[in-house]
Structure formats: structure tokens, C-alpha cells
Amino acid sequence: MKKVSVIVPVYNVGEYIDQCMESICGQTYREQEILVIYDESGDDSLERLRCWSERDKRIRLVINDERKGLGAARNQGLRLATGDYVVYVDSDDWLKEDFIEKLYQAIEETGADYVSSLGYFIVGNGKKERYTTLPAGTYRSDTDKMLILLGEAPAVWKKIYNREWLLKKNLFQPETFYYEDWGYDIALVLEAEKIVLIPETGVFYRTSHKDDSAHDTMVGICRDFRKTLEFGVNEAQERGTLDKFRLAIEKYMVHDVFLREQLAVETENREALRLLQDISADFLEERFGCRNLYEFKRHICMGSFSLRWIVQSTTAPLKKLEHFAFSSIIASFTPYRHVGIKHKNLLRKQQVEQDISGIFYETLRNLSEKTILFIDFLEERCPILEMQDGAYMTESEAYLDADGTPVTYRRILSGTQEFMGLWQQKCLELVEELRRKRELVSVVLVKNRMSERYGNLNWTREFEGIGEIRQKNRMFSEMEHYFLEHCKAALVKVTDIALPEKWRFTDVDFRHGCEPQYMNGALYTYLGYELYKKFRDGLDHI
Length: 542
Prior knowledge:
Structural class: alpha/beta
Number of strands: 21
Number of helices: 18
Strand content: 15-25%
């Protein structure tokens, strides 16, 4: 059995360190050296660590008389490590008892430069949520590296690394207090020849004690964000990967800068906002020539959650996105009175109310700002329900769990002649509204489909009911053709984007469920990247 060096930086975690150390020492994989790098703290962390080092002789306690930060502590541990493989563990988190064994088996079997679990558990405020990213499998090509950089969480603490490879490639982390793994990921991912994701979630990531929105913390994060950004870009340049992955690195930066700016605005943190604006000017604009991503005041999605996730992979963060989900074109263009319903899920409650009340139609008609409208027709798979006065609502999965919805008189199945006739009528009304607003609205049609297969990059199988799925997909294709033809006739410009065949499957480990209306994080990340390429200089330039 080969040795695994487990590196644990420690600073002011007396409340959590026992659970962390117990989970490491209790691992089913026993051949470990446990390097605990202690930075001078103001609590009882050191006393607790000394007790642990007496209990388990695999622990080597390294004491620093000042705080140097996570990056410096991990680098110190890597230089001291003697194992064949390296695992980093944050001292306020804890592991499943067989997590290191699963990582070890995977890197031994595959010979990868590093192996990552595809997700982790977010623990906070009495809740535990499983978070996953990309589908399990092997990633080797340049496109695969782009997907890892943009679609995987840049967290060093859910991976196992070949120590010899880390040292040979000089892969040490930036020595900052915040965001150290963000810039590091640019060097790490683009330097790797073989990355493997395994279908395991073995880290419990604690969040309840972290408040990134506090004024001084946010300012510190923004300062270190600039340092780690400089680190990542400089590493890519020195390693010869900057030109090849320039757009991916740019997009990687844009997403976090944009999100941080929104948080700074919401918390009225002027100092943090100034630092982020300097980053935008110095890096995104001057170094990468990225100047037009903020000209659209509104980002609107009309369609599925698959569409939402693709859009969120571009430049539109969650809090800036207006989403009309669980709604067919028929329902959204037959406004009913505003109603209030009951639903255990607040987001779904809002979406069903919007569907019934025709809020999308009102929103489109009243637009006065420059807007990107993203649309797909995946929600047209649902039947519609006729209400009084010729109005309709969508029999979506959200509707089925709602109480207090209006009385309906009959049900019209999706794809029937009557349904298609109604849909075409309302589609023409949509096109007419887009014609009226064509100076304000840029339209992006994503040709989403229901998935015929499920699995990961290693295997896939057909869903049950594949005949019905294929029939729905043919209907979506007919709808797209009808919409595009009438937009062309109305002089409405539409950017359309299709799904690549390679990633047309539902991830069996997808965090929202393994269902045909979902695909996988790799496909959503790829489409987000392709859309970003199309409108990074403004949709008017397409």
C-alpha cells in the first residue's frame, strides 16, 4: 500500500478541529502521514492538536509562530510530504470514513495526475445539501480542460494528487488568505494531462460560520482576489497555456468578478466595489479586451431550468436573471387575473403564479431597457389546462404540487393538433412583440432536448419510454423551425445554438435528479462557453 500525505492547515478552528481529525484518523485507508500545519491562533486549537498527536503517531504537528494563510500552509505541507499521493483537508470540514480509500483506488487504477470527487456536501444552518458539478469520467482533451476549469469547483480539498507530478510541475499555491485555490486552478487544470472525476461525495463542507459579506472580510477577499488572479494569469503565461485557453481563462475571471460586484452593490460596500472595478479595468478590459459584457440591463429566460443553467454559465448571475419556468407559450400569452397559490417551494410558487397570470407577456410588452431574451421550448412537453375566459395554464410538475390554483375545465395534451394550433397562434403573438421591441431585445434560442439516455462519461443507458421522448424532441424541432421562420420574416434577429451530440445524456449523479428533462453539467458548461464566445463583444456584432 502506498502512502498518502494528508495536509491539514489549522487556524482558529478549535470548535471544529476534533471532528475533522477524527474523520481523518478514522479513515479506512490507514497508510497515511498526517501533516498538520498550525498557524498561531487565538483559541485552543493547539492544545487539541497536541492531544491528537499523542493519540495517533501518524500525525506530524508543525507549529508556525505567525499566521501565513491557507496557501502558505499547504505549500509548507507539500514540501514536507513523503507520500506517493497528497490530499488536502480544511480543518473546519470532515470526511466520510472511506473517502481517501476511494480516491486512492481511483488514482492507482487510472494513473491520473489527480482525481477529484464530483461533488461534496454543503453543511450549514442545520441543513446538508449534496452539490455536484460535472459527470464522472476521464477528462483529457483541451475541451475537457475547459470544462473542468469552468464547470468544476476550484476546491483543492476534494481531490487526491500525484505528489511527484505536483513537484515536477512546480504546482504550489498562491500564498494568500482568501481565494488561494481560485488562481491555483488555472495552473493546475491546464497543466494536467489526465483528470478523473469519480462518482463520490465524501467531503462535508461547513458554511455556517463563514460570512463573506462582512465589510472587512469582503475587502480582504477582493484584495486577495486580485493577487490570485495575477498568479493564475501569470502562471498560464509562463507555462505556455494562456494563448490556447485565453477565452476560457477570461470567462473564468468574468464570472467571479461579476458575482462579487453584485454582492458588493447589494451590501453597499464601496471599497470592495472600487477594488473590483479596478480589476475589471486592469485585467478584463486592458489585458483581455473584454468591454461589452455589462451593456445588457436585463437577462430574461423563458423556458426550462436547463436553459437557466446554461445562461448562468455565461455572464448572467443568479440574482440578475429573470426566469419564467414551468410555463408554455400558450399559457404565458393568455393572461389571467393575478392569483396567489400555496406551494411548499417558494420558487415554484412564484413560477406557477407567473404562468397563470401571464407575467412574461406583461414583462415583454413593457420592456424599456436593453435585454437579452433566452428561450427554449422544453416546457412545451407539458399539457395545458383551460380556465375560464379562454385563458390557459401549464400542467407542469410545479403545478401538480400546488394548492389553490384556479378551476380548470379541460386538459389539452401536448403535441395534439389542437395544442399545436394554439401554440402556433401564440408563437406568432410572441414574434410580433419581439418585432416591436427589436431595438431593445436580442433573442437567443437554445435548441434544448429531452435526454434519451442517462449515465456518465464511462457508460450510458436508454431511459424507459424512449419512444415518447423522441416524439417530444421532434415536436421541439418543429417548433424551433416555425419560430425561426417567422422571426426571419418579421426581421427579428435570433442567435440559435444546438446541443453537441457528445454530452447528450442525463448525469446519473445530477444534483437535481436523473430525469429526461435534464442533461449534465458538462453540456451546460459547454453551451455557456459557446454562448459567451458569441456575445462577448455584444450580440449586435454576430
